[in-house]
Amino acid sequence: MKRTVLLCLSCLFLAPFLPAQEISVVEQRAPQTVPFAQPFALQFVLSHTPGYAVTLDEDSLSDDFTITQSSWTENSPGTGTYDFTVMPFVLGKSTFTVTFRLEQDGQAVASAPQELFIDVSKVKTFDDPNLREIRPPHVPFGWLMWLAVLLALAALGAVGYIWYRRLHTRALHVSAAELDTRPGNVIALSKIDALLDSGLWENQQYKLFYITLSEILREYLWRQFHVDASADTTAELLRRVKNMPQMKPLMSDLREFLSSGDLVKFAKAVPSVAVRDRDITLLRQIITETAPKELAPGADKEEK
User: Fold this and answer.
1) What is the average pLDDT across 263-270?
2) Which region holds residue 278: left if phi is over 0, alpha if psi is between -120 and 50, else beta?
3) Which one, 111, 232, 237, 256, has least CB within 10 Å?
4) Is the predicted pLDDT of residue 272 greater than 80, yes or no?
5) Over residues 191-213, mean pLDDT
6) CA nearest 65: which of 100, 30, 94, 107?
7) How many CB atoms lie within 10 A of CB 25?
8) Residues with Cβ within 8 Å of residue 117, at least 6 apart in sequence
């Protein structure tokens, strides 16, 4: 009894002197202005209690930016550096948010939220300051004015027609797709094989190749989960599926696959064969892991 009392008193006496679990950002390196849809680097130097793991809270990341690469480097037992390659997809003043967590045995014991304000500007087409407009100003008169009005109305009509087709294309695809009675994962995997045999990659049509690859994923989401992501951006698609139980373990792979495709489709990046094979593998894994699991023969009888 006396030992127990002494032990309790010792714990109460030593508790104030035990080190607290802490994590904080001591330095951050980030540009103030970046061009739209062009990757840039961010770096955070962290100080933390030694002996704990430093992780990234993916749910805290801003939807205005897409992280294409991230890495953690341990500088010393109590300091480290987090490096990011980030791509902005919103013009103007944007906020990049991220939260670093200190973990032990998979449990968070402390966190350090960060917020950066970055100005995203339009991409400059020409950098030569000597370029100038040499044509004189011209104001159309008479029938030229009416021609301009008619052309503008025709353009508005064309835009309206395109939007109408876009809104109703999904319904047409669904009715046509119903003819194929195979499971959604089987159809998606077969379309990946057909894309690899199409010759697009060999003809260096990389953008069309990745557009088709992205459409395979979006069609699979519709067939398997009835999630219509046909008109979603990368950020919108990630927000739409992040709370789905089947997709939660695969969010990192999905983010990496979509970010790689955006680099090719919007930033005109030229992918290597290794990058293509990695993206194909990521898509196959997403489809395979989220496909319905078939019961082994006789399993249903055993359950009964």
Assistant:
1) 90
2) alpha
3) 111
4) yes
5) 93
6) 94
7) 15
8) 93, 94, 95, 96
Alpha-carbon distance of 13 to 180, in angstroms, equals 72
DSSP character at residue 32? S
**Do β-strands 92-104 and 40-48 pair in parallel, antiparallel, or remain unpaired?**
unpaired
Among all chains, which residue has been given the structure tokens 């999905």?
254
164-180 burial, b for 16+ CB within 10 Å, e for fewer?
eeeeeeeeeeeeeeeee
The owner of tokens 């202005």 is: 33
Looking up tokens 């009005």, which residue turns up? 149
Least confident of 74-88, 133-147, 186-200: 133-147
Residue 51 Ramachandran class (φ > 0 left, ψ -120 to 50 alpha, else beta): left
Give the H or E element holding residue 48.
Answer: strand 40-48
Output Rg (C-alpha) for the chain, integer angstroms. Answer: 27
In the chain, the amino acid numbered 181 is T
Residue 13 scores a pLDDT above 60:
no
Model confidence, pTM: 0.44
3-class secondary-structure state, position 39: coil
Say whether pLDDT at 177 is over 70.
no
Residue with tokens 């990946």: 192
Lookup: tokens for 246: 């089947």
